[in-house]
Structure formats: C-alpha cells, structure tokens
C-alpha cells in the first residue's frame, strides 16, 4: 500500500522536477565546486573490486562516473529525466547505467548493492523524504555493506560558520536551512547506518560520512 504524501512532500516533488528540468543544461557548471569531492567519496568508500554501486540522486552523473572510472559496476538513479539525459549523453562508461527512479521507492531487490551513495542531495529534501531515502538505501544495500553520504556541513569557527551559511542560503533551496542545522549523524544511526569515518571537505562547508549498514 502506497504511503499518502503530505502537502510538503507533494510540493517537494513538484518543485524538484520543475527546477532540475530547467537546471539540467547548466548543472555541471553550478556544481563545479563539488567536482573535487567525487574522487574523495570513491576513495573513502574503499570498495572491493567487483563491487556493485548505487548512486542515489545522481543528477548529471558526476559521482557515478567517478565510481565507474575505477571499474565498479554503477547504477545512477534520479527523479529528473532531464538530468539523466545529460548523464547519458556524457557517459563514456559501459559499466555505468542510469534509470529514472524515486529514491523513496527504489526499484531494486533487497541487498542488491555492496555500496550505496548519496552526494549533495539530502539537503534538497524535507526531513520526511530524507528519512525515506535513507531507509531505502539501507534496504537495497547488503548487510554490512557501505553507505556514504556527502553533503553540506558547517565549520567549527563561528566566523566561518556564519559566512558559509549565509553564502550558501543565497543559492540553495529552503530545505538547506533545516538540513544544515539538523544533526545528520543521529538520523543515520536511527536508520541502522553506523558511522565509521568522517571527512571534512570544501573548507568545512561539506562533509563525507561513511557508514556500515547495520540492518538486521
């Protein structure tokens, strides 16, 4: 039985599809500051040879390409067909494929992947959607598999925190404010993702969290 969407969730889906359809041709330029983080995510994952990778909210595929370049079989999913069309046109990897899919209801069997990753996407989601996405990532990742989240954070320094926060709110959606003020680690822990490694990136404006899937 399908869950009934809240008004906030309906608004999220509507805005996401419209916004990313418009942004798709320019998204790689907008997301250029994140390019250096992609390889850090792959390196931190430390996946074994032959691992199957899921890249959630892949957008134009940059994170998926970083995994595929290292030889991993990679699947990237996204709500936006327009974004995926860009990814497919740019892809030069036979070991990377892309599918339109809702991350809150992934079209994969349980335990389908060795690694699941979501990069700079959770901050674009209301909390209820974030929870559903993490729950689905846990479901489709094998027990003791790796789950990696890369997204915004804030540095410890009060001045840096103030500057980065007020700069980022200029171009990010309203959900960013709630996301960056919330405590991401307990949310991951409640979804049976045990954090085993943390890395700060983008001079404190970003973070990568590596977890083990502790589902029963």
UniProtKB/TrEMBL annotation:
GO MF terms held by the record: demethylmenaquinone methyltransferase activity; S-adenosylmethionine-dependent methyltransferase activity
Taxonomic superkingdom: Archaea
E.C. numbers: 2.1.1.163
Methyltransferase as UniProt keyword: yes
Keyword Heme on entry: no
Alphabetized InterPro entries for the sequence: Methyltransf_11, SAM-dependent_MTases_sf
CDD domains with a match to the protein in the record: AdoMet_MTases
Protein's name according to its UniProt entry: 2-heptaprenyl-1,4-naphthoquinone methyltransferase
Provenance organism: Methanosarcina horonobensis HB-1 = JCM 15518
Organism ancestry: Archaea, Methanobacteriati, Methanobacteriota, Stenosarchaea group, Methanomicrobia
